[in-house]
Amino acid sequence: MGNIKGIEHIGITVPQIEQAEEFFKAAFGAETLYALIEKGGKPQVGEEMHGKNGLEPGARIIAMRMMRIADGANVELFEVDGVHGSTPDGPTRMGLHHFALYVDDLDAAADRFRQAGGTMLDGPIDLGGKEKGPGNQCWFGNTPWGLHVEFVHLPAPIALDDPERTGPRWMPAGV
User: Fold this and answer.
1) pLDDT, tens digit, for every residue of 131-168?
2) Are residues 127 and 83 in the same domain?
């Protein structure tokens, strides 16, 4: 694996930074570590950044926040003004498909998520295949702007393809 240690952060483009930041705080207990770009400050502009991070010409990153959620990867939120999604990648595309959070109590996580303004889909779902085991479940919800979030609870072992080669699946400390 070379020098790779694990996921340091995921980046998510959101329609309104303030709404997303407050939602992440309320739903996940996230903490804002710092603002990289404040609204009204100097934005990143596509004409300067396209070759560096894929920001499309005509677009501007007008706000960025780095947040921390418990004992996992950091989350970097972006608000982009201007064109959206005329290229197949880059920070002008809204969101990502989903990210998953390990939880000890699916019902409590779903309640907090709903109270913050999210909606839960049908669930919890008993996991199957190599993730099947007593109590192994997940449950998806949608943030107010439509990003999927998966809550995962895995008290039973996972059947890995080749545990001697890959090692165990990463889990937060204390799981």
Assistant:
1) 889 999 989 888 998 887 888 998 998 877 787 776 77
2) no
Number of domains observed in the structure of the chain? 2
In eight-state DSSP terms, residue 129 is: G
**14 lies in the same domain as 91:** yes
pLDDT tens, position by position, 84-134:
555 544 555 555 667 888 899 999 999 999 999 999 988 898 988 878 899
Asked which of 71, 96, 121 is the last residue of a domain, the reply is: 96
pTM, entire model: 0.73
Beta-sheet strands, E only, within 30-110: 31-37, 44-45, 60-68, 74-81, 98-102
Nearest to 144 by CA among 12, 3, 24: 24
Residue linked to tokens 């996940």: 28
Write the DSSP symbol of residue 167: -
The closest alpha carbon to 107, from 171, 147, 151, 173, belongs to 151
Tokens in use for 128? Answer: 């199957």
At residue 140, the 3 state secondary structure works out as strand
